[in-house]
Amino acid sequence: MDFDIPRIPLGDWIEGGLDFLTSEFSGVTRAISRTTQAGINLLNDGLMWLPEWALMALVILLCWKLSGRRLAIGALLGLSLIWNLGLWNPMIQTLTLVVIATLVAIIIALPLGILAAVSDRFYKVIMPILDFMQTMPAFVYLIPAIPFFGIGSVSGIFATVIFSMPPAIRFTTLGIRQVPKDLVEAADAFGSTRTQKLVKVQLPLSLPTLMGGINQTIMLALSMVVIAAMIGANGLGSEVWRAIQRLRPGEGFEAGIAVVIMAMLLDRLTQSFSGRKKGK
After folding, report:
1. Can you tell me the distance from the alpha carbon of 225 to that of 105, in angstroms, rounded to the nearest whole number?
2. Is residue 9 assigned to a domain?
């Protein structure tokens, strides 16, 4: 005898939930979309206003200051190659999206990470959620972005923020929880309040770990911004996506190499900044 197990309408429930949220909070999402788009345009226009040689010189000087001659030479060669390939403007667009998405992700993640570090109850709640978020395929994050914000760069930033936020939360929690207990007890002995203990002891000592989380957030943001070209985000990702659609592998590899150069520079810069802070 066959038993027919009814299918759980999970997809219908999710679609219903998205429809409810988009209809009830349409005013909020429109305001967020306008504000985010204005920020994108402002930062992008500001970076575009600088001549290529001027922005390149600023990046090279920053690399020299934070890391030394090797990274500065690498930045010179890499940025010169991007400019020579005609990918300077898409690179600026990608950098704009990465900067905004990373800032938003960190602003949200730091308070959550601090709360998880000081509250065992909240820690037990948020860790399974972070596990779920980090095992979800990246493409899935593009789905809810479209009904909320439509096609374009704002949707790409929304998906990027959600995708890149978990490492910042985890590393913030880890850094604060790894502060030696004797130092925390010494702060308590001197009558420090919880806020003073957090600001003057726990956060400064956990800064190298926090910078590791920011580094991972930047790398994930860069990877997601490229994928977000599928829903209309501008930048190097759109160059790769256009090359795929037109069967032009050479152009796709050129844009991919530009993404790799950006990733290497951002990674080395954040690591160098973290190392300088740790040395101090």
Report:
1. 13
2. no
